[in-house]
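User: My instructor asked us to take a sequence, write out its structure as tokens, and then describe one feature of it. I'm not sure where to start. Here is the sequence I was given:
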Amino acid sequence: MKLNTFKIGGVHPPENKISAALPIKTLPPPKQVRLLLSQHLGQPAVPVVKKGDRVKVGALIAGGEAFISANIHSSVSGTVLKIDNVIDVSGYRKEAIVIQREGDEWEDSIDRSEELNNDITLAPEEIIDKIKEMGIVGLGGAAFPSHVKYLPLPGDAAKADTLVINGVECEPYLTADHRVMLEKSDEILSGIRVMMKAGRVDRAIIGIEANKADAIELLSGKARAIPGLEIVPLKVKYPQGAEKQLIKALLNREIPSGKLPLDVSCIINNIGTALAVYEAVQKNKPLIERVVTMTGKSLKKTGNFKVRMGSPASILLEALQEELPPGTARIICGGPMMGKAVNNLEIPISKGTSGFLLLDEREARRKETKNCIRCAKCISVCPMGLEPYLLEKLAERRNFEACETEDIVDCMECGSCSFTCPSNRFLLDYIRYGKTNVMRIMRDRR
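Assistant: Let's start with the prediction itself. The structure tokens for your sequence are:
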């Protein structure tokens, strides 16, 4: 059977899905959480609690007041110790609410039962309000506030006809989404029905790469009972999970430069977001926990864990009853292609945290950089049709005007160019540098 995929570029890094067969384990809440006010794209949330306040699990502690922002809720019950600056995954100090846990008392409004609730009683506008109230964001990595995608647009603006659900998880090593599909399939499908109603669409497609045959089989069987829902197996190719590439693979629609999925009549969300929407709308549960993968070849054991937001990442190693392996050279938050290196495992887990990868010295070592040999491999694998070798040179020379002309902001930072470069050039590093500066210049211009 011929499998769908995007047409331009892409690479095939080793999958290394070594934790794919390991069931999700729920971790107990930590003694203390540090809940970042910037767990999402857009403006930070604004605290609505102060030092000394007592909160329950699920209590609102910070409000997303800006148009693009998200509410933050307490993931533990206890006392607010302080509002302080803590180091996040980027290495910068960001404002966070620190709560000392005392017991585990939940808000009475949260339905904690395991009983499936398929009865969707809310109107589309009420669903959108509930998604916003519960602080739901995209769990695929970007952490874009989910309610914004479903807001009705005025006049003759583009309207969605299809909901696309991203079950690809193409980043090597990560397996959290795979396990969620296997263990929470009924809740996911109910969440998709909620999202279809919120988006006023009659069609939904779940794209899943063929290396997750068990998830494809399970969801395909259950999806037959839901009108308009289709499961589409996809060819294994990175970065299949990027929204532009996924929409091209599933619907053969191309998102123009500078445009959004809605411009081609699509709403797109991650599979984990579908579960979070179900819990928010049908169970009145805020986004206070998520599934995270802890993996790496140097670990004796790996795993997938449901963990409270604000927990230190070290809680994952503790759950494996392991210490940081000797010779660990790099800790990656996320996968090896698009993840960020962090200094330690004390950074707090946030809504956008999908996993942690430990690399030893051999895996982490960068090979000697050589001169560009003009082989054009970086061009052939770029899924956005850019010229990475050129963007690298322009950024290195701080020619940001030319960077903008050459569409550097279209780069999704997937790392395919660096992965395939035979000269081991720092392509992505310089492109990120150039893109950051171009975006700053564009903001200043506006």
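For the description part of your assignment, you could build on this observation: The longest strand covers residues 78-87. Try explaining in your own words what that tells you about the chain.
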